[in-house]
Specification:
The protein is of the alpha/beta class and about 220 residues long. The protein is built from 8 helices and 11 strands.
C-alpha cells in the first residue's frame, strides 16, 4: 500500500514504525525539521520536511497515486485542512487524529475516519491497567463502547456454564458480547454454546462502560 503519513510526533512515529514494518510504501510529511530528520535516519523511506497544508506538498508526496493518507498532528485545524486537500486530490482512504471531539463531525463530513481524543484513550488505558489488573488489552471505542480481555477465575459465575446460559441468567448483560475465548494458548471466536472454564481468557465487547463490580463478578 502507498501510504502518506502526516506528522511524526509520538503517534505518527509509532504509526510509521508499524506501516514500514508491514512493508508498506510510506511517505512522511512533517513541518518540524528535527522530527523529519529523526524519521529519515530511522527508516529508509521518503520524508518531506514541509507544510502538509500545502497542496504542492501533498502532490510531491504522491497524493495522486496514494492508497491512503493518515494525519496525526496535535492541531485539528491543520489536520482538517490536510484532509480537505487530500479529498480534493482524490485520495480514497483518509484517517485523522481528532484532538477535540467537538471537531469530529467536520472530519466525518469530509469522509475521513477519525480517532477521537488520543490522549483520553491513553489515559483510560493506563487508568484501567492499575485500577483493573484483571482486565487486559483495554480499548476505548467511540460513544463509550469498550473492548477488553479478562481471565476467568475458579469462583467466577461463568465457570461451567455456556455463554448462552450466563446470558439467560443475566450474568452477562445484554449490552455485552463475548467475542472470543482463549484456552491453553489457542483462541477461537466465541459461540453461544461454548462452556467457560477456569483460566479461560475472554475477549469482550460492551456498549457501555463496565463497572468495577461487574468486572469483579465476571473474573471471580
Amino acid at each position: 500500500m502507498y501510504m502518506i503519513i502526516v506528522g511524526a510526533g509520538s503517534i505518527g512515529a509509532s504509526l510509521i514504525d508499524i506501516a514500514v514494518g508491514e512493508k508498506n510504501n510510506v511517505v512522511v510529511i512533517d513541518a518540524n525539521a528535527e522530527r523529519a530528520r529523526a524519521i529519515q535516519e530511522r527508516h529508509d523511506i521518503t520524508v518531506l520536511n514541509a507544510d502538509a497544508t500545502s497542496a504542492d506538498a501533498l502532490r510531491e508526496a504522491g497524493a495522486d497515486r496514494a492508497d491512503s493518507l493518515i494525519v496525526t498532528t496535535s492541531d485539528d485545524a491543520v489536520n482538517l485542512m490536510v484532509v480537505w486537500i487530500a479529498v480534493d486530490l482524490g485520495v480514497s482512504s483518509i484517517a485523522s487524529v481528532v484532538n477535540d471531539k467537538e471537531h469530529a463531525e467536520f472530519f466525518r463530513k469530509l469522509g475521513a475516519s477519525v480517532m477521537e481524543n488520543p490522549e483520553d484513550v491513553i489515559a483510560n488505558h493506563l487508568y484501567n491497567a492499575v485500577k483493573r489488573p484483571s482486565v487486559k488489552d483495554y480499548t476505548l471505542l467511540s460513544q463509550g463502547a469498550q473492548v477488553f480481555r479478562l481471565e476467568v477465575a475458579a469462583d467466577s459465575p461463568l465457570v461451567d456454564r455456556s455463554i448462552a446460559e450466563s446470558r439467560q441468567r443475566e450474568t452477562i448483560p445484554g449490552s455485552m458480547l463475548v467475542l472470543a475465548v482463549a484456552r491453553d494458548g489457542e483462541q477461537a471466536l466465541a459461540d453461544e454454546d461454548d462452556v467457560i472454564q477456569e483460566n479461560d481468557v475472554l475477549t469482550i465487547f460492551t456498549l457501555n462502560r463496565v463497572s468495577d463490580e461487574l468486572i469483579d463478578k465476571l473474573t471471580g
